Amino acid sequence: MSNLLRGRARERVVTIFLLIISIGLGFLLTKITTVRPQEVISPGSVLSQEIAGVPAGEIYGAIKIGQSFISPANGLYRIDISLATYARENDREVIFHLRRTPEGEDLVTIRFNAAQVEDNSFYRFEFPSIANSAGQSFYFFLESPDSEPGNAITIWGVVRNVYNEGKAYRNHRPTGGELAFRVYAEKALWERTVEYLGQNALQIIMFLLFSALCFCLINLLRYERAR
């Protein structure tokens, strides 16, 4: 009878211990999978060209303003562009395109209204992540066929070349200078796991020690009651 009680007590102890471990691991996994962007230059960006001094000109009719770049990481999923409204309210549709080359087909197309743009700020374009984007060339541009002079937005940029792996474009032809933009990439699960474990090593160790202590205490109590 005594051995039976001890066997049941051990089973309960193991069950409780595994439950504690499962809850802890579930919490860690949730944290890891919800940590998304890489923290490099601007918060979350892997490429940032934020030097700007002049507007690229109003985007309307057949005018297209764009920029080429090389993604430094896999998982490209977001591009921010520095936009300006000329301190007025604009209300026409604007279209964002992302391609491999100026002549290529769209990988991403996003439509938005110019009224959503805040003057002199970065506007965010997010899309499903592109897995094998590291080292690959990309090209984005904005157009707004329905806009007209006096009712159009623009992109901030700089007239000199400050980014060596890309260039600004007007109507799909390269011009001098660069646009102001930021690129974001999503880390792979294993990279996020390593990063999270490294950043939270102390908490993880404390959790494991606490779990071991709970296991020992519960086992001791069960053993004493079964005697």
3D architecture notes:
The protein is α+β, with helices and mostly antiparallel strands. Helices cover about 30% and strands about 30% of the residues. The chain has three helices and 13 strands, in the order αβββββββββββββαα. The strands form two sheets. Strands 1, 2, 4, 7, 9, 12 and 13 form a seven-stranded antiparallel β-sheet that branches. The chain has a six-stranded antiparallel β-sheet with strand order 6-5-8-3-10-11, with no helix packed on it. A hairpin with an 8-residue loop joins β5 and β6. α1 crosses α2 (about 190-200).
Beta-strand fraction estimate: 25-35%
Question: How do the helices and strands follow one another from N- to C-terminus?
Answer: HEEEEEEEEEEEEEHH
- By oligomeric state, this entry counts as single chain
Broad structural category: alpha+beta
Q: Work out the count of structural domains.
A: 2
How can the largest sheet be summarized? 7 strands, antiparallel
Q: Give the number of helices.
A: 3
Query: What is the terminal separation in angstroms?
Result: 10 Å
The number of E-state strands comes to 13
Q: Remind me, CATH topology of the largest domain?
A: Jelly Rolls
Looking at the overall shape, the CATH architecture of the largest domain is: Sandwich
Mean pLDDT: 82
| Mass-distribution shape | elongated
